[in-house]
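Would you mind writing out the residues of a protein together with its fold in token form for me to study?
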Amino acid sequence: MDPNPRLIATHWIKAGMLQEAAARVAHLWATRPSAHAAQTSRTASYRVDDLEDYLQSGAYDRGFELALGWGEEFKDWVQRTYRLGELDEELDEIIEGKIPYLDEDLDLPPEVLEAWYASGQWERSVRGDLAYAPSWYLMAKPKSVHTKLIHFTNRPEAVASQGFKHGEPDKTRLSLTHHLEDSGSGAGFNFAYDVKDWEKYAKSSKGGFKYGTGAVVFHAQGLKVWHKGGREPQVIFWGPAAVGLVPIVRGPEGWMANGSTYPTLKEAVEAA
């Protein structure tokens, strides 16, 4: 719990230490987190926890999501798998082609949706357009972290000064998000490396770095996952909650961070 400046002041005043009370209260008010910052932190914690639950969802929830997202494939599978009268009326309507569009009101026996997920008959369609693939399809081993991160970008100074203005708010659509940084999308989830991982994974096979010419180093709560598409560990974090953003820019004499120049990016990251 944050210390209450008023209670602190009362304690010191009763002790007859007025100057100390004034100095202590001024320090507490200056360093106390703002209401907005506290709310942003709570939002980030909720979002990250909710994402972790989603990425570890079971067969029924995944089957339901796949049935809504790939309805034609699901209906075709149902028609090939079940017979009229085998389970319930809604399934019969799908078999007879009486339900043209599946929505959130879909109410089928759990074993149908679990069998649909287990069949893998949806996978070819999902792989055909990974930008719309469910997030859990490409992410494994989620683990909550709160640590120093590095995000590569072509606009490190803008990101550091303005924060992560663009991201993906939908937890189900995080499979491919490279396009979001310069898009008109609002704030949401973003990706970064744990600072312990970037040296091994951030470099491009063509030289340089895969996701940008510069970087931003900061702290945030996030979810570390193994991204099966990129074949690398990444940390998903709620963009507005990133704090202590330090831009790292390559200059003619090396990498610049915090007003100093370093011969290598590693040294700049360590100093940030």
Observations:
- Residues 59-128 form one domain.
- The radius of gyration is 25 Å.
- The first helix runs from residue 5 to 14.
- The chain has three domains: 1-29, 59-128, 137-271.
